[in-house]
């Protein structure tokens, strides 16, 4: 996975203009350090490990980082789920605005313009779902008796996600999880893209801990999340090997996690996602109360 | 307590054969390897019938029959599938007294429950899902929802026929075919249901019933030609099934155990709350996954609630399940009775105080007196583990926040109860409880239109209502 190519694909500043007779001073660019994103902060891996990806040193997350991320996600969950749906919708819309303003940066990382368009539009699409999904997925139940009876969806809690490498793929797994009030621990495959997205999330009023992003080798960290007792659901969309996916699903069975399998029908991220990516991470709560004077 | 004369429901309404085969491809047939087991009446340990024990070959035959029947059943216009289900609902209504008596004989539950709760809900469930069969494109699961294929379904012994209805009705309405395994200790009502299917003229192979023990169920779950697994039962077995299914691409829904909190606030109507507490834990001998087995009482009304609860418990009538006055019937099996006894003894050993009203137990059969434990802490096993019997653990709290904290302090999340006169408190507490069903100022209410299922380790998926279709649609 890590490549050691030069960073030639990076934005290089233009040669400064100046009188021809003066000595040319070449300004050295300031490079970015790619760290993890946990609890709204950008720490290095507690293990001190890095790996090289496209010429950058990137944090190599450990199982301890994964556990720390679960703690951050759990701590953030009640507050995020307790925010109004209107508020969560605006926060997601703000993410779309921030991605739009960083188009150049993603383009420099090799994200095609069409994918960027689709990514921004996907945030906008999900932003609008925040205060509509409850009416579509729930409602009053006509029971045979004098009872008020209503079913409403609620977030399942903390979702561990093995994310696909592309920006659109990454956003297509994070957005449906968080729009309804879940918090996430994301194992990202494309580290520069993922951490650039993390910088956007950090400046989009997304509360710290709602999205936590770990870079590194998911085969190393995912088993710990799959078996973690404080993780409610596991999204395997980004897992490429069927054998590993099955192993992770077996590990998740120990705590009866909700599991989204890699073949959950989302390989084509340009297609209409439908409701499934949201509803798979929702619980239905049904409340009864008698009617009477 | 004043005396009641015996008021037994007549047994003659049901005729039980001495032996039953498996129901495969529309025919009753002995198991290939000839295995049988006995099913007994838990109220007197009398053998009711000998039932075939399905081996791997038999499950293979049942799955093959379901596979053969699938294309035809799935291709049938929804309106026609609906009419089969309506027929089944009507036949169940017509035969409901017979089936209620049968259920009480095989399960041990009081006739007033099998007659007034189980059977009406069974018929209603088929009636409800019948109506969905030709309306699936409007259910919100896409414009052209398709059935999944062959469903392997395993149901428990606490509500044998009702759980069968919860499994089979939505599966058939959506165009799937099924192989269902009833519990080892309560196979009879499923076999009578097979006869209902024949009476309804249901095409052979659409419903297949394989009886047997855990091995039969495990083989069915692992069968490569089963596309969808649905299980109701213990969390431990649920985990095993989830492991078996992992990596196969089979669809899975699980309805597992619970340890529900029933929360009584200081402003609750005490008499109503006590009725709810009694219903919550003593309905069906406490053999209920959503039973209100942890009573959380606000400290200021603890004495009042407890005194009232004890007074009410002293009026509960335990005995012959077929007696129309019986409140508490027989424990379903010797094994379950042993588990209830063991956990209750541990409750005492761990320091909780045990109380039961004076209660005479019959000499034969499996019985356990209604029991409460006070002085229970959250660390006690009787506050953490599902007992699945008429045993209530009583804890206290001071503030709503503490009640919510304690209620959610469990790996389970199936149901919960709230008792208070304050509407805003009901809504705020209901919002914070991590449970799939919340009963406010009522308990143990069920309806085919109302989704049922758990959070956390109580399983996943919902049964009932529009939500219940999702598990059977591709």
TrEMBL record, chain B:
Judging by the UniProt lineage, the source's domain of life is Bacteria
Q: Does the keyword Oxidoreductase apply?
A: yes
> Which GO molecular function annotations are given, in alphabetical order?
oxidoreductase activity, acting on the aldehyde or oxo group of donors, NAD or NADP as acceptor
Q: Which InterPro entries match?
A: Ald_DH/histidinol_DH (IPR016161), Ald_DH_C (IPR016163), Ald_DH_CS_GLU (IPR029510), Ald_DH_N (IPR016162), Aldehyde_DH_dom (IPR015590)
- Keywords, alphabetical: Oxidoreductase
Q: Which Pfam families match?
A: Aldedh
Task: Give the annotated active site.
Answer: 255
Every Aldehyde dehydrogenase domain range: 35-473
Q: Which PANTHER family does the record associate with it?
A: ALDEHYDE DEHYDROGENASE-RELATED
What family does this belong to?
Belongs to the aldehyde dehydrogenase family.
Q: What is this protein called?
A: Aldehyde dehydrogenase
Source organism (scientific name): Actinoplanes cyaneus
Q: What is the lineage of its organism?
A: Bacteria, Bacillati, Actinomycetota, Actinomycetes, Micromonosporales
């Amino acid at each position: 996975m890590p490549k050691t190519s030069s960073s030639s694909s990076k934005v290089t500043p233009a040669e400064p203009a100046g009188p021809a007779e003066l000595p040319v001073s070449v300004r050295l660019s300031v490079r970015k350090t790619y760290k993890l994103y946990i609890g709204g902060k950008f720490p290095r891996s507690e293990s001190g490990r890095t790996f090289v990806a496209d010429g950058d040193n990137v944090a190599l997350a450990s199982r301890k980082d994964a556990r720390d991320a679960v703690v951050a996600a759990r701590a953030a969950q009640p507050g995020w789920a307790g925010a109004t749906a209107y508020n969560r919708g605006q926060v997601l819309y703000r993410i779309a605005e921030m991605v739009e303003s960083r188009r150049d940066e993603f383009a420099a990382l090799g994200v095609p313009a069409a994918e960027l368009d689709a990514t921004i539009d996907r945030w906008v699409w999900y932003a609008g779902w925040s205060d509509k999904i409850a009416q579509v997925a729930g409602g009053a139940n006509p029971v045979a008796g004098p009872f008020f009876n209503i079913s409403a969806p609620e977030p399942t809690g903390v979702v561990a996600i093995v994310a696909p490498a592309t920006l659109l793929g990454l956003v297509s797994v994070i957005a449906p999880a968080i729009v309804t009030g879940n918090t996430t621990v994301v194992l990202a495959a494309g580290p520069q893209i993922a951490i650039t997205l993390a910088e956007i999330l950090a400046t989009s009023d997304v509360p710290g801990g709602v999205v936590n992003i770990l870079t590194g080798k998911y085969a190393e960290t995912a088993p710990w999340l799959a078996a973690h007792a404080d993780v409610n659901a596991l999204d395997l969309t980004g897992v490429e090997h069927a054998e590993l996916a099955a192993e992770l699903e077996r590990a998740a069975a120990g705590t009866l996690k909700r599991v989204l399998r890699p073949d959950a029908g989302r390989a084509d991220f340009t297609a209409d996602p439908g409701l499934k990516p949201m509803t798979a991470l929702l619980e239905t709560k049904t409340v009864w109360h008698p009617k009477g004077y | 307590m004043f005396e009641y004369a015996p008021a037994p429901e007549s047994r003659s309404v049901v005729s039980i054969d001495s032996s039953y085969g498996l129901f495969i491809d529309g025919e009753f047939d002995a198991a290939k390897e000839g295995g049988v087991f006995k099913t007994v009446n838990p109220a007197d340990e009398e053998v009711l019938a000998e039932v075939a024990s399905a081996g791997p070959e038999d499950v293979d035959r049942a799955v093959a029959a379901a596979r053969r029947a699938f294309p035809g059943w799935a291709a049938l216009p929804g309106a026609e599938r609906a009419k089969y289900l309506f027929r089944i609902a009507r036949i169940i209504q017509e035969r409901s007294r017979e089936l209620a008596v049968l259920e009480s004989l095989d399960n041990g539950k009081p006739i007033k429950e099998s007659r007034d709760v189980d059977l009406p809900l069974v018929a209603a469930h088929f009636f409800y899902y019948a109506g969905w069969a030709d309306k699936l494109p409007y259910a919100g699961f896409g414009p052209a929802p398709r059935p999944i294929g062959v469903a392997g379904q395993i149901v428990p012994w606490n509500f044998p026929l009702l759980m069968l209805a919860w499994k089979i009705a939505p599966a058939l309405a959506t165009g799937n075919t099924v192989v269902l395994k009833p519990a080892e200790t309560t196979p009879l009502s499923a076999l009578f249901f097979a006869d209902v299917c024949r009476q309804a003229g249901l095409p052979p192979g659409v419903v297949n019933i394989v009886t047997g023990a855990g091995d039969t169920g495990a083989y069915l779950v692992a069968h490569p030609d089963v596309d969808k697994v649905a299980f109701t039962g213990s969390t431990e077995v649920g985990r095993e099934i989830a492991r078996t299914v992992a990596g196969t691409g089979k669809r899975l829904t699980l309805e597992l155990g619970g340890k529900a909190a029933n929360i009584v606030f200081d402003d609750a109507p005490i008499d109503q709350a006590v009725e709810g507490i009694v219903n919550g834990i003593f309905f069906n001998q406490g053999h209920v996954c959503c039973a209100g087995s942890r009573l959380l009482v606000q400290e200021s009304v603890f004495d009042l609630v407890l005194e009232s609860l004890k007074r009410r418990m002293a009026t509960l009538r335990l005995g012959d399940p077929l007696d129309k006055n019986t409140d508490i019937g027989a424990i379903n099996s010797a094994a379950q009775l042993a588990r209830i006894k063991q956990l209750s003894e541990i409750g005492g050993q761990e320091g909780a105080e045990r109380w039961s009203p004076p209660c005479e137990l019959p000499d034969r059969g499996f019985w356990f007196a209604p029991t409460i434990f006070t002085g229970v802490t959250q660390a006690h096993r009787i506050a953490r583990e599902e007992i699945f019997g008429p045993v209530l653990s009583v804890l206290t709290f001071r503030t709503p926040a503490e009640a919510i904290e304690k209620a959610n302090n469990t790996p389970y999340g199936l149901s919960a109860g709230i008792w208070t006169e304050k509407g805003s408190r009901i809504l705020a507490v209901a919002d914070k409880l991590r449970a799939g069903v919340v009963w406010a100022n009522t308990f143990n209410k069920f309806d085919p239109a109302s989704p049922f299922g758990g959070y956390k380790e109580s399983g996943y998926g919902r049964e009932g209502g529009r939500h219940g279709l999702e598990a059977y649609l591709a």
